[in-house]
Amino acid sequence: MSFxxxxxxxxxxxxxxxxxxxxxxWWLRYAGRGLGTVGGFIAMFFGVWMCLTVYAExxxxxxxxxxxxxxxxxxxxxxxxxxxxxxxxxxxxIEKRPYxxxxxxxxxxxxxxxxxxxGLSSIFGSGLIFTTGVVYGMMAxxxxxxxxxxxxxxxxxxxxxxxxxxTMRSNLVANAQxxxxxGAPLSDSNVKK
Length: 193
Description:
Elements: H1 3-11, H2 26-51, H3 56-76, H4 87-95, H5 99-116, H6 120-141, H7 147-159
């Protein structure tokens, strides 16, 4: 495969075919890709920034944030990693997975740097990866129902008979006994001898 063929196949994503695989709007798909790409670069930059501190937790958090940013870029924009041969195969394999898998992976990758070294660089760098996971989570939920469908579902829920008793003597427990007052407890001074 020549370089130009490889480059055109990499740049043809996301979803170049005319067949819609799911009901996700095109702008949300591009928002997830763009946010993941930009967030990956920013996470890598701030990961280097975090590694310049003297704290060991921030050093490890920065390394984890740089790795998470690199993985995010490799998945979302494999055209940025032309020199790594297996990235295209990895990206294609992950692209066939459901959206909630990507959402969960991005959220899990973003949390350790924030937990290890809470600060603006970890929150902003890993926060963009976390936001990418939230966008993919919204894509996994799918479209909202139409207003007519929601209205008919609300009318059907209101018209459905209730199975709960609605009398004045309804109790949470069917065999509940009434509370009674038996008097003050007996003490040594109250006991008659």
